[in-house]
DNA sequence: GTGAAAGCGCTAACAT
DNA sequence: ATGTTAGCGCTTTCAC
């Protein structure tokens, strides 16, 4: 099968009887070319099936009109919302989005940041696992917006964990809980640290005892270990690092015949797909992931160089939390 | 903040005291350059933080080392597996993957196929909504591999629906069901058509009555309408276009106090994230989406031009299906 | 084995 | 308003 050679700007120029620069302008600065000529050029281009070659365009301008989104785990539905939001915002702005999976690996994240650099105009890095100085160094080369991670000097979009964790604690306290266990995720997780810090502050204010256990894997697979530990210690309310872990915990508790929420209340973070139809439906702190994804892309495009955008969160109370059985 | 200018091949050549062509060769044809020179060049390049510019490379060669994946709906977890598999296969092969959402729109799919064309070396188009001739036309310009869609002349990766649907019908028949209702998805859906065709054949062979209703939206939102219709007609077993719809149906049945599976059995397709922890856990035909994604990318890279790869499916029997209450 | 030089398709001065 | 021309960073003949 022989593929047709793509029409170039030169082909269009020749067919339209104008210079290549006119064709170029007709596409990039329509107002800077006579209306009639523009019409004509555009029509000829269309007939020839001409589509500008972004690689060639990138060479002259240095801008690729492409943005990269780095996520730690493509299979985690939490990031689906972010991807969707980012993709929409990029598409709206006429940019192409490249999505890459860092597989929770700082090395791979670092590698992508350098190898993709010449190919893109900037990065949205979600839940970065990189140390602050590595991020700042990368930011000296490329435009970077952080998502659910913040470090001084870099623009970031984060969930408002301060208010969010307070909502969680108030909810549990109002149900009569006086102590809670935080089932923590990876030690290096920035959002995990913020969640725990917020919970602690809120607990202190509201007279609730809080302890942190873990780390547990922030996946369904982390559930059994976390659930067993909570059970062994007689916890009556657990707050999990994220929904994946929380759902894993729920499943393990069901296996072991433990009643939720009568025996133990379970709360998660993220409100991922599935949190409302697992059993029992999960009480969780919802983040506006679509908005976060599109906000991050927006910052990237507007060339923001600093500042933290905090997005509101919302506690979704479902059946996994309730008053402790006395 | 002034960003450092990226080192170019010229910088490396100058610093290493060789010609640019030697630097180029050191990267692209390591064996065609003296080992010592190569070492030296590579070391200098590393010191300068040189990373080849893919856009420039693309101009000379015409290959961008970038592949595009088009999906109808990024928020559908079914496609998460495909994205993951495709991304892994692309990364393994040193390619970059671009993911775009067609939003179930043939027009947008068409548009992406042409506008992205010069930017990528080929497309994986998942669950294409385009008519056969539009696909063939696109394939004359770009390299295309279809996923869960097939049309003569184009390479494709599909699930083995023939065997899969038979497993579904055998399962229901073995439980004592003598009739089933297929709650169909979008009319234009190729996989929907194959699923229905397979169900019909299997039903004919096994003496089961089958009727098709719909179309319903293949989303959670499609559930209520589909469930209500099934209920009104007294269906005892429904097979849904996909898991999203099936879970929507499940939720609606729960709302209406209908017992699953005693009153009605529900079966889905895809085994998406959540299918095993919704309530009751959903019996569904699992497709190997990760494998499908990576297989499609593999075909793209190996420049396959035709042939259908059928991937095995597996029925996951869970609690949503059972014998009808007599 | 290595260098010199000609493009790849496009944009952006600079002319006209 | 439009044409001319010089690159952008890299690969690739073609010489040496």
UniProtKB/TrEMBL annotation, chains A, B:
Q: Which molecular function term from Gene Ontology is one that the record holds?
A: DNA binding
Swiss-Prot/TrEMBL keywords: DNA-binding, Repressor, Transcription, Transcription regulation
Outline the extent of the HTH lacI-type domain. Answer: 7-61
User: Which SUPFAM superfamilies does the entry link to?
Assistant: lambda repressor-like DNA-binding domains, Periplasmic binding protein-like I
The record's InterPro entries line, in alphabetical order, gives:
HTH_LacI, LacI/GalR-like_sensor, Lambda_DNA-bd_dom_sf, Peripla_BP_I
Asked if the keyword Oxidoreductase belongs to this entry, the reply reads no
Which superkingdom is the protein from?
Answer: Bacteria
Q: Give the protein name, as stated in the record.
A: LacI family DNA-binding transcriptional regulator
Instruction: State the taxonomy lineage.
Output: Bacteria, Bacillati, Actinomycetota, Actinomycetes, Propionibacteriales
């Amino acid at each position: 099968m022989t593929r047709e050679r793509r029409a170039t700007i030169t082909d269009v120029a020749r067919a339209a009887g104008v210079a290549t620069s006119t064709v170029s302008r007709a596409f990039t600065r329509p107002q800077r070319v006579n209306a009639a000529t523009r019409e004509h050029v555009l029509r000829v281009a269309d007939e020839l099936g001409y589509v500008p070659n972004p690689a060639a365009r990138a060479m002259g301008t240095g801008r690729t009109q492409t943005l990269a989104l780095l996520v730690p785990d493509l299979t985690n539905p939490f990031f689906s919302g972010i991807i969707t939001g980012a993709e929409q915002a990029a598409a709206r702005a006429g940019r192409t989005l490249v999505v890459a999976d860092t597989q929770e690996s700082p090395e791979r994240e670092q590698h992508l940041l350098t190898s993709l650099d010449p190919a893109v105009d900037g990065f949205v890095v979600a839940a970065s696992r990189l140390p602050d100085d590595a991020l700042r160094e990368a930011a000296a080369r490329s435009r970077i917006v952080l998502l659910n991670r913040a470090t001084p000097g870099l623009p970031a979009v984060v969930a408002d964990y301060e208010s969010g964790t307070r909502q969680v604690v108030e909810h549990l306290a109002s149900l009569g809980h006086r102590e809670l266990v935080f089932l923590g995720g990876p030690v290096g997780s920035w959002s995990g640290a913020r969640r725990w810090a917020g919970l602690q502050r809120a607990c202190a204010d509201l007279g609730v005892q809080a302890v942190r256990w873990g780390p547990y894997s922030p996946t369904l697979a982390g559930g059994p270990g976390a659930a067993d530990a909570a059970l062994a210690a007689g916890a009556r309310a657990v707050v999990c690092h994220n929904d994946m872990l929380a759902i894993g915990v729920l499943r393990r508790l069901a296996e072991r015949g433990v009643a939720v929420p009568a025996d133990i209340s379970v709360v998660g973070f993220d409100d991922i797909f599935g949190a409302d139809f697992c059993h029992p439906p999960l009480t969780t702190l919802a983040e506006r992931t679509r908005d976060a994804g599109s906000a991050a892309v927006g910052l990237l495009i507007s060339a923001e160089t600093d500042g933290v955008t905090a997005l509101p969160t919302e506690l979704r109370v479902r059946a996994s939390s309730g008053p402790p059985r006395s």
